[in-house]
Design goal:
This protein is of the alpha+beta class and 396 residues long. It contains 9 helices and 12 strands.
Length: 396
């Protein structure tokens, strides 16, 4: 049965200073004898390392709680596991670090090899099902506006006018208690599903089919880019790569789309594929329009030209550096030779020692001082003295 499912999880820091998202997937056999394929994304918040710790504690505690559970009712098991995670995070961090979370759990049996899907969520982590070329959102963001809308107390138009309409009303680790939502807010033929109806669907679960794709994702992937006013991850990209036959390649492709648009928040995903002979390899960028492909090609060409130009400049600079070093070496050699010649010429005049000059003449008698303006050398034959000095230098 395990070969029927493949999963992949990853996360990215994007442009933030800290990575506070956490994603995980696992095949868990519970103490009650159930086999579950689980995918989790937790999105932490808090100062310092508290956010990342809250997200990691949330995901790991949920997986541990599922494993040791003797409960055979999957929705109840998921709710209790998330509640356990809330208690652990609150006990450890006391509100300094919190997290949202989305959980996908597929219960597999001999009679249902494709499995039955159950969910649990707190906050604004998103859960999706890709089926028959359509993308269905399974849960809702727990915001102030949605709490009123799905309780039937306000219309969507009225709720969006509220102050802090997007304020997240539920998080892991805020207090001792947390309201876990096990509802599935998607139903064929109904554009809107109330919280009460979603709860009943969630309790029953959804039977999966061959080729179904499940995705849990942090909210940073769906924030709107200021460049083009579109989400960092687009619906058509999820649909296209949801048909891939390699879950890791699909997940990496989705992350490449998003990171290439420079999101302002951490991003994380966890994907689960139900195998199907209809799945085919999907290359990154395979769904781009002709204009987009041309744009990518032009960008790649410009980047290549810039790299070549910089490399050429580097080689030119290196060549100039070598030339300068060689010139400096030649100058230093010339200076050394000139210094040696000048030293030799200087030694032609003070060729004396303590007992006389090097020609063998005794030192002058101080009692027979020469008249001012004359030197002792002037009494010698200048030609003879010069000749003998030259000869001594030659012999030396």
């Amino acid at each position: 049965m395990a070969e029927k499912f493949t999963a992949f999880s990853t996360r990215d820091i994007a442009s933030r200073d800290r990575l506070e998202d956490y994603s995980a997937d696992a095949v868990v056999t519970t103490a009650g004898g159930l086999t579950l394929h689980v995918a989790i994304v937790a999105d932490g918040a808090g100062g310092g390392e508290a956010g990342e710790l809250a997200a990691r504690l949330t995901a790991k505690t949920i997986l541990e709680a599922i494993q040791i559970s003797t409960e055979t009712n999957v929705p109840r098991m998921l709710a209790r596991s998330v509640e356990r995670a809330n208690a652990v995070v609150y006990s450890e961090l006391r509100g300094a670090g919190t997290s949202t979370v989305g959980v996908l759990a597929v219960h597999v049996t001999e009679n249902n090899p494709n499995g039955r899907l159950y969910v649990a969520s707190v906050g604004d982590t998103r859960l999706f099902l890709v089926r028959d070329g359509k993308l269905a959102r399974l849960n809702i963001d727990h915001t102030l506006a949605n709490e009123y809308i799905y309780a039937g107390q306000m219309s969507a138009e009225e709720a969006r006018l509220l102050d802090n309409a997007d304020y997240v009303t539920r998080s892991i680790g805020v207090s001792n208690d947390v309201h876990v939502d096990i509802g599935i807010y998607a139903e064929r033929g109904r554009p809107f599903v109330t919280s009460r109806r979603a709860f009943r669907i969630g309790q029953a679960g959804v039977a999966l089919r061959e080729g179904d794709t499940l995705l849990a994702a942090s909210d940073g992937l769906f924030e709107v880019s200021k460049v083009d006013n579109k989400p960092f991850l687009r619906e058509d990209e999820i649909l296209r790569h949801g048909l891939d036959d390699n879950v890791e390649r699909a997940g990496q492709s989705l992350m490449r789309y998003a990171t290439g648009r420079s999101p302002g928040d951490n991003i994380a995903i966890s994907m689960l594929f139900v195998d199907s002979p209809r799945r085919r390899p999907v290359r990154f960028g395979s769904g781009l329009t002709r204009a987009q492909r041309i744009g990518f090609g032009v960008t790649a060409a410009i980047v290549s030209l810039v790299i070549i130009f910089l490399f050429t400049q580097f080689l030119s600079a290196e060549s100039r550096r070598v030339t300068i070093e060689n010139t400096q070496t030649a100058i230093q050699d010339a200076v050394v030779r000139l210094s040696w010649t000048a030293t030799a010429l200087t030694h032609r005049q003070p060729l004396t020692d303590g007992d006389g000059d090097l020609y063998g003449h005794p030192p002058p008698d101080p009692r027979r001082a020469e008249p001012s303006g004359h030197s002792a050398v002037s009494k010698r034959n200048p030609e003879r003295g010069h000749h003998r000095a030259t000869g001594l230098l030659a012999r030396a």
